[in-house]
Design brief:
- InterPro entries: Asp_de-COase-like_dom_sf, MoPterin_dinucl-bd_dom, Mopterin_OxRdtase, Mopterin_OxRdtase_4Fe-4S_dom, Prok_molybdopt-oxidoreductase.
- One of its GO terms (molecular function) is metal ion binding.
- Keywords: 4Fe-4S, Iron, Iron-sulfur, Metal-binding.
- This is Assimilatory nitrate reductase catalytic subunit.
- This protein is of the alpha/beta class and 686 residues long.
- It folds into 4 domains: 50 residues, ADC-like domains (N-terminal domain of TfIIb), CATH 2.20.25; 206 residues, Rossmann fold, CATH 3.40.50; 187 residues, Dimethylsulfoxide Reductase, domain 2 (3-Layer(aba) Sandwich), CATH 3.40.228.10; 113 residues, Barwin-like endoglucanases, CATH 2.40.40.
- 28% of the residues lie in helices and 18% in strands.
- The chain contains 21 helices and 30 strands.
- The strands form 8 sheets. The chain has a 7-stranded mixed sheet with strand order 5-4-18-17-16-6-7, covered by helices on one side. The chain has a 6-stranded mixed sheet with strand order 24-26-25-30-23-27. It has a 5-stranded parallel sheet with strand order 10-9-8-12-13.
- Strand 28 and strand 29 form a beta hairpin.
- The radius of gyration is 24 Å and the shape is globular.
- The termini are far apart.
- Bound molecules: iron/sulfur cluster.
């Protein structure tokens, strides 16, 4: 096999890779000189080929038999079981009794066809995806401020010119290590309750109590106003709403912020002065400030700071969100979100409905309306008003959803659970039907990375016999449900061409991007409205995407976390990722080197907190919240806050961090509060 240029299967940085070898057990990966990674990969990227030959790789459809066991079946049998089940449930309970749960790792083509399949073949409004748990707060805040949300509205390489970068809730030294090379010249200000690997490299680490980042953001705006650091001409010319946002911020003077967050007033002042000292500053947010019941408001708070300092919409400075999942950006643009149609269009917008309906060859009234957001959808499964059947593509909600024991119960209450995956995830293990599908190096398609750059995923080897592509699976199911085959192309290029037409005129306009242009090496960032358009690597330079071209300050005020500590649950628990693992760990827990690096759940605890709780370094701990309990090995860490413990969320079974997390939802985004809940911790033998 000749070398194949493609991209890492994991995070939104989408590092460029070159694959050689040609067989699942011999394929080798090397980093390519792609701009975001420039010859580097992280540990996950280097070991990604191992998942291709995972010993428990799914290669045959599985159907649950009368004795309750999953047994191998032919594709025809499995698809017939699924289609018969869907038809029966729909006939008995209506189209919304069938639901679909997608993923932010699916290619653009899969995300697009999944949305179309749900709305046309199933006729259901009940579709959402795991990106609701990842990106939704930043998306809501970005859209409110700028008129459109694109993770980074500038290329990653622009960060090389930064003098100061504030990272709010982003631990990129572990989650996206190759990105760090672009920040080597910058002074980092890191906002994180935990002294993360990134915080350890920072010039300034602000360590707020979990759930208080919004108070901190308000306080930073306050300081900018009081110290005369607001870029008033920028605010007057390019923004609306400063006065109302400023009024809120003026109530958050540094000492009050210190009392609420624990961040010293002097450090707050230092942070704002560093950001305002020169033009070339950036503010970047990540899941740490976004995964809260006020996550969208918190991001708005940091965007307000960026606008006050005049950073967005200029070359050499800006605001951006560090998208998490591999196709977290494209995954939210093409119609697998409950409230959106392809092109990043609102599903309630009559013009958007008319356009997409015309591309799909149906009437606008044939398209269902908005459905439930991800957690609400999972919470409703198997209830009298909720879906009775669920199709899961590219997601593992039994591990990754908040209040995981409850979500597992809801999955178990379904009449029909169908999971399409390439490894037997914890959700697949519960399914009535499991469909074995291709993974990254076995398929063609496109992904859109955190810069809004559309990338080609290329096939480097044949899938194992018995495995099918998701696009073909969707078409075969659609045909069994009475749809014309011609409505569901299964060649990725054809699907992409239809996606381009569906996105035309939308906020995320892909209509000028083609496989041909991408294969010729063009760097194309959306929007790209025609085939001669060079794409848009930098957004907002002339105008923001609101009709009047101006950005909006969003009036926000601090509020407490949905669950505060109490005598029964005296500590905050916060969750996050580690270098060796990705998302629910379904892929990375199958890689020996990564398991050797971190093979089991752990909890980071301050030694004094541990001593008070009777915990020993290396011992077992039971972490209990109002929703359930998890077990983990104790790691003492003197840099932890005394009031906080940290648990990674990549592990299954009793080690699921989401057994304790709080599903309190952000009213603007539907994001659950993964990043703070109240717990107690005690030694255990389990
Ligand atoms: Fe893959 Fe992300 Fe690591 Fe790059 S940083 S190698 S894209 S996991």
């Amino acid at each position: 096999m000749s070398d194949v240029d493609t991209h890492c299967p994991y995070c939104a940085l989408q590092c460029g890779t070159r694959l050689s070898g040609g067989r699942a057990d011999t394929v080798r990966v090397r980093p390519s000189d792609f701009p975001v990674n420039r010859g580097r990969l992280c540990q996950k990227g280097w070991t990604a080929p191992e998942v291709l030959s995972a010993v428990d790789r799914l290669t045959r459809p599985l159907v649950r038999g009368p004795d309750g066991r999953l047994v191998e079946a032919s594709w025809d049998t499995a698809l017939d079981v699924v289609a018969d089940g869907l038809r029966e449930i729909r006939a008995r309970h209506g189209p919304d009794a069938v639901a679909v749960f997608g993923g932010g790792g699916l290619t653009n083509e899969k995300a697009y066809l999944l949305g179309k399949f749900a709305r046309l073949a199933l006729g259901t409004s009940q579709i959402d995806y795991n990106g609701r748990f990842c990106m939704s707060s930043a998306a809501a805040a970005g859209t409110a401020a700028f008129g459109v949300d694109r993770g980074l509205p500038f290329p990653v390489t622009d960060l090389r010119g930064a003098r100061t970068v504030l990272l709010a809730g982003a631990n990129i030294a572990e989650t996206m290590p190759p990105l760090m090379q672009h920040l080597e010249q910058a002074r980092l200000i890191v906002v994180d309750p935990r002294r993360s690997a990134t915080a350890r490299r920072a010039a300034l680490h602000l360590q707020p109590a979990p759930g208080t980042d919004l108070a901190l953001a308000l306080g930073l705006v306050h300081i900018a106003i009081v110290e005369g650091l607001v870029d008033q001409s920028y605010v007057d010319e390019r923004c609306h709403g400063f006065a109302a946002a400023a009024r809120r911020a003026m109530a958050w003077w540094p000492e009050r912020v210190e009392g609420t967050t624990g961040v010293p007033a002097s450090a707050q002042r230092q942070a704002v002065r560093m950001l305002a000292e020169s033009r070339d500053s950036y503010i970047l947010t990540g899941r740490g400030v976004e995964q809260h019941s006020k996550g969208a408001d918190t991001v708005s708070g940091f965007i307000n700071l960026a606008l006050a300092l005049g950073l967005p919409g200029r070359t050499g400075s800006g605001y951006g969100c560090l998208t998490g999942q591999g196709n977290g950006q494209g995954g939210r643009e093409h119609g697998q979100k409950a409230d959106q149609l392809p092109g990043y269009r609102s599903i309630t917008d009559p013009a958007a409905r008319a356009h997409v309906a015309s591309v799909w060859g149906v009437a606008p009234e044939d398209l269902p309306g908005p459905g439930r957001g991800a957690y609400e959808l999972l919470d409703a499964l198997g209830t009298p008003q909720g879906p009775r059947a669920l199709l899961v593509f590219g997601s593992n909600p039994a591990v990754s959803a908040p209040r995981a024991a409850h979500v597992t119960e809801r999955l178990a209450a379904l009449d029909l659970l169908v999971v399409a995956d390439f490894v037997p995830s914890e959700t697949a293990a519960m399914a009535h039907v499991v469909l074995p599908v291709t993974q990254w190096a076995e398929e063609e398609g496109t992904m859109t990375n955190l810069e809004g750059r559309v990338l080609r995923r290329r096939q480097a080897l044949s899938p194992p016999p018995g495995v099918r592509g998701d696009l073909r699976v969707l078409r075969d199911l659609a045909v069994r449900l009475g749809e014309p085959a011609s409505r569901y192309p299964s060649a990725p290029r054809e699907v992409f061409d239809e996606l381009r037409a569906a996105s035309r005129g939308g906020k995320a306009d892909y209509s000028g991007i083609s496989y041909q242009r991408l294969d010729a090496g063009e760097a194309l960032h959306w929007p790209c409205p025609d085939t001669r358009h060079p794409g848009t690597p930098r957004l907002f330079l002339d105008r923001f995407a609101h009709p009047d071209g101006k950005a909006r300050f969003w009036e926000v005020d601090h509020r407490e976390a949905a669950e505060e500590t109490s005598p029964e649950f005296p500590l905050h628990a916060t969750t996050g990722r580690v270098l060796a693992h990705y998302q629910s760990g379904a892929q990375t827990r199958r890689v020996a080197e990564l398991v050797e690096a971190v093979g089991a759940p752990f909890v980071e605890v301050h030694p004094d907190t541990a001593a008070r709780s009777g915990l020993l370094d290396g011992g077992r701990a039971l972490i209990t919240s109002a929703r359930g309990a998890m077990t983990a090995q104790v790691r003492l860490d003197a840099t932890m806050r005394l009031d906080t413990v940290f648990v990674p969320f990549h592990f299954p079974g009793d080690g699921r961090a989401n057994l304790v997390t709080n599903p309190a939802l952000d009213p603007r985004s539907g994001m659950p509060e993964f990043k703070v809940c109240a717990v107690r911790i005690a030694p255990t033998q389990e």
